Amino acid sequence: MMDTWIKDVKNREHAGKHIALKGFVNSIRKGKNNVFLILRDPSGTLQCVSHAGDPVFADMNRLTRESSVLVEGILNEDERAEGGYEVKVSGLKIYGIAEPFPIKKGHKKVFLFDNRHIWFRSRKVTAIMKVRSTVFESIHDFFKHNDFYEIQSPSFVSGSVEGGSTLFQIEYFDKKAYLSQSWQLYAEAMVDSLWRIYTVAPSFRAEKSKTWRHLTEFWHAEAEVAFMDLDGIIKLEEELIKHVVRNVLEKNEDDLKLLNRDTYVLKNTLEKPFLRMDYESVIDMANQNGLKLEYGADLGSDEERVITQKLDLPVFAMRYPIELKPFYHKPEDDFKHVLCNDLLAPEGYGEIIGGGQRIDDKDTLIRRIKECGLDRSAYEWYIDLRKYGSIPHSGFGLGVDRLVMWICKLPHIMYAVPFPRTLRRINP
Ligand code: 4AD
Ligand code: MG
Description:
This protein has 14 helices and 18 strands. By secondary structure, the chain is an alpha+beta fold. The chain has 2 domains: 6-96, CATH 2.40.50.140; 113-416, Bira Bifunctional Protein, Domain 2 (BirA Bifunctional Protein, domain 2, 2-Layer Sandwich), CATH 3.30.930. The chain is elongated. The two termini are 32 Å apart. Bound molecules: 4-amino-1,4-dioxobutan-2-aminium adenosine-5'-monophosphate (4AD) and magnesium ion. 4-amino-1,4-dioxobutan-2-aminium adenosine-5'-monophosphate (4AD) is lined by residues 161-162, 181-182, 184, 205, 207, 214-215, 218, 220, 222, 351-355, 395-397, 399, 401-402.
């Protein structure tokens, strides 16, 4: 049987009735004549009270913060209680008495992440994880409703997709292997038979720089579509983001409120078409905002922070110079630019999606593999795909943790992930 949740009983309909709720002690105040306990479950909190002379009063006094209990009693309307309701406790079962809880207000980030396993109980963390759950659900939902097949690729791979500098090398019996940075190359093989495909899976990057938006293991939602060009894939990305944001606004209103998330930009994202800018215009905009970039400069976390800080809508940054992007992007205008797009989230967050149109011509692909200094032997099977009825196709990868970070307006990507993995952290 399902447990009863606080949010489902904290209403007029249940007032005056006997209820039973499981939960944890969010806080407790003990006086000579009463004990006030704030009970917490995944759905919210509820004040519970017991008075001296009640049969449960002694047991209530044994409770400590984060102890786990089953509370029974009559629910009463009471203006003085948070949320307007209170339980007068008549029955109490104690599952576990908590030792002094180490996490208090004002702890620093490092301490909190060292104690992520118990800090996880905090209401703010819970709210973020609920938003995260909606984000994942919405991504699956979007693709399923748009005739996509869900399909998987291996995590052990033999070559890089996104450049060698962030490859995690591992021992694979007597050979060298790597952890996958992206499903893309396999997706391009599978797209010829299934035409519209997606996956949601972890990707790995040996990110040596310490920034607010890089993990070594992140969740990657990727899609690949046959017979689609750059414009088509951009439209699909925009629809996906709008769908996710719409669902979060609908389902997680309380969570966003608890996180003090001002929802103006999220609502704007739903209502207006996203901005579109070619690379050169992005550089111009960056310089108008005080940066001193030359055409050809790469955009990292700091630059994108400045570029998007004042925006109230996501922006597609398109058609980058060929030197700035991996080998697989389709070149245009005599190999000067490529048909790529990065989707930059507003409010200083920057890139959440990377995607574009792929090279479909064999000779162009071989030339780009060579120019990028890659070992062709690892890509023979990928080149093969251009030999047998090659088609135009496009795809993208969405960093799901980054999307959660932006939607919740978090100061660092680590807050968006249950147990984050970074350059410095692999524990707990
Ligand atoms: O821009 P990226 O590197 O593109 C690709 O991997 C393509 N092969 C995807 C595709 O076309 N199928 O990565 C895609 C997205 C980025 O925009 C970013 O949101 C996220 O993945 N990402 C990371 N998120 C957290 N930590 C990291 N170290 C990330 N690296 C990329
Ligand atoms: Mg990228």
